[in-house]
Amino acid sequence: MAPLAEFGYVGSAAGLFVALGLGIAFGFFLERGGLGNAVKLAGQFYLTDLTVFKVMFAAIVTAMLGLFWLAALGVVQLPLVFVPPTFVLPQLAGGVVFGVGFVVGGLCPGTSCVSASSGRLDGLAVLGGMVVGIVAFNEAFPLIAAFYGATPLGPLTIPQALGLPHGLMVAATVGAALLGFLAAERLERPAGAARG
Amino acid sequence: MRRVNAALGAAAAALGGLAGVLTLAGGRVAALDQPLPALVESHRVSALELAAWLRDRRPNLVILDVRPDSTAFEAFHLPRARHVPLADLRSVPPDSGATVVVYAAGGDLAARAWLVLRTLGHDAVRVAPDGVGDWLAAVLNPTLFTDATPEARQAFAAQAELSRYFGGLPRILPPGARLDSTTLLRSTLRRGCAF
Amino acid sequence: MPARRPAQPYLNPYLAGVGIGVVLLLAFVVMGRGLGASGAFSTAVATGMAVTAPGHAAANAAYAAYLPDGPTSLFSDWLFIEIVGVTIGGLLSALLAGRFRVAVDKGPRVSVRGRIAYALAGGALMGIGAKLARGCTSGQALTGGALLSVGSWLFILAAFAAGYLAAPLVRRAWT
Question: Which value does ipTM take for this structure?
Answer without folding.
Answer: 0.94
